[in-house]
């Protein structure tokens, strides 16, 4: 049961009454008459064969208020794309599957790349970016939710609560971030959020002094959640990273483009579990190691746009301050786990902190060594300005793919 406490400068919408799902969905159906609703699902082909995606599909088939579901499919050959079309054909809602590795979308990607207007590297950020472009191209919906496709505890109430704040015409929110307790199977999860992001934000406050931007990020209860919703207008001017810095990048763009009273976070699940990444301590290009470096780089880049000047000494101080704060958090979480009868391995927690501390320095060194890097995907406003027909091309390419490869 959530409490009603409002922390920080972003409105928190709690789950105070365990309102019946049927009531929420009834309202969403009414809202959808004035403000059509869509869902974006960025997924890998491999997730279709996992534990989570069949469950998600089963629940989505029962959702009565969605006008459109847009699926971004990565790492799929032709045969796998055909299988994906068959898999998603169970959906009663209008749905479109973007074959990101198919020749038609690759051709659009190549044309944009000639003007440096397309994501430079594959990943979730690139997938999300093309899906958002299709939302604009379709023009069918006014409010959109997005969530991951590896949620093994999925229930359609998660989607209802996630999209409600931007669907309700009586609310003025442009963007909503989902949050939840990362507790499953008798233990506390969410190491990157608990042991990297929160202590790093606190360390940055201590080293750099008061910044509204840091207070803003620290207001989110789960800043790395892959679940958020927004009104369609948000898409036009957003510039996001294509790597693991996606979530931090999205939050940063919302702060840049909107007043904080147009932003909120909502409790969307009592239980949430998804695919877990390995620590990958010996590989900076995999697992939580890569994730921590990408997230930290995203933070440093955004702070630089706020006028913060970094050097090696600054990063050393941030790393030392972070390390002390993070170790204190390990003790806090150990106590929290014990009073709730949950398991928490202090040794593994401190191993993660040690790795994250090293990666703060690596992220800082990378930031200093690549001063001319343009890490953010261009906004769709800029892309449309350079290629006025791009949305029509994207819409037609997706439709042509689905007609040609659909399994009859």
In short:
This protein is α/β, with parallel strands linked by helices. Helix content is 50%, strand content 12%. An eight-stranded mixed sheet has the order 1-10-6-9-5-2-3-4, with helices on both faces. Strands 7-8 form a two-stranded antiparallel ribbon.
Q: What share of the residues lie within helices? A: 40-55%
Q: What is the H/E string?
A: EHEHEHEHHEHEEEHHEHEHHHHH
Number of helices: 14
Give the overall average pLDDT: 93
Tell me the strand order in the biggest sheet. Answer: 1-10-6-9-5-2-3-4
Note the overall shape.
Answer: globular
Report what the structure shows:
With 408 residues, the chain is α/β, with parallel strands linked by helices. It is built from 14 helices and ten strands. It has helices at residues 21-34, 52-60, 78-88, 103-113, 124-138, 156-167, 191-208, 212-218, 246-257, 287-305, 312-339, 346-369, 380-386, 390-405; strands at residues 11-13, 37-44, 66-74, 94-99, 143-146, 175-180, 183-184, 187-188, 228-231, 263-269. The chain has an eight-stranded mixed beta sheet with strand order 1-10-6-9-5-2-3-4, with helices on both faces. The protein is globular.
Describe this protein with a few key phrases:
Glycosyltransferase involved in cell wall biogenesis, Nucleotide-diphossugar_trans, transferase activity, 408 residues, transferase, 10 strands, alpha/beta, globular, 8-stranded mixed beta sheet, two-stranded antiparallel ribbon
